[in-house]
Design goal:
alpha+beta
Length: 196
């Protein structure tokens, strides 16, 4: 008895359908393996700055834990080579520069990635010393959080290569020869919050 052509076509269609299903399943497994491998590579290449850049891009609310104790809170809005900028909550409050050398951990709310998986570099080439020099050029009144937990509030008068000159209290234009001055090593500055 001779096979009917429509049955042969049905068998061929069934075989092709089975092959296609097997191929889709194999591709799905391979795709998941590739994704897992890429995730693992990203996690192994992750850097501290890369994670902070990602959080700043998301404008994540963060709590930065500081080496001397205490925390800095706000919305992470920028990351430089050795400093980050936290916008305060509420937004009309002053923003704060935080020296990354004094940050021991960062906690992010909601928008944070599950694991560290970024090796991106900061788009800002800003350094803490440069930011402090710009503030001193404007005679900004600022609150400095220093290593060891001390705070100094006053007018930033000058910024050298590694030292700040601060006149505590009083108006920014007070340049009396006998007015008190505090000299602060830039490396001891943990936070700087302009107050004007």
């Amino acid at each position: 008895m001779e096979a009917r052509p429509e049955r042969d076509g049905d068998a061929l269609l069934a075989a092709l359908s089975g092959w296609a299903a097997d191929h889709r399943a194999a591709e799905a497994v391979a795709g998941r393996a590739r994704e897992r491998w890429l995730r693992q590579q990203a996690q192994e290449a992750a850097t501290w700055l890369g994670v902070l850049v990602d959080l700043a891009e998301r404008r994540a609310a963060v709590v930065l834990e500081l080496a001397a104790g205490g925390v800095a809170r706000g919305t992470l809005v920028g990351v430089g080579t050795d400093v980050c900028l936290l916008a305060a909550d509420p937004p009309r409050s002053a923003a704060t520069l935080v020296a990354l050398a004094h940050v021991v951990a960062a906690r992010a709310a909601g928008a944070a990635p599950g694991v560290a998986a970024s090796d991106r570099r900061p788009a800002l080439s800003l350094r803490l010393a440069d930011a402090l020099a710009a503030l001193a050029a404007e005679r900004e009144v600022a609150r400095l959080g220093l290593a060891g937990g001390r705070e100094v509030t006053g007018c930033l008068l000058a910024a050298g290569a590694d030292v700040l000159t601060v006149r505590p209290g009083g108006p920014p234009d007070d340049h009396r020869p006998g007015a008190e001055r505090i000299f602060v090593p830039v490396g001891s500055v943990v936070t700087c919050t302009p107050l004007r």
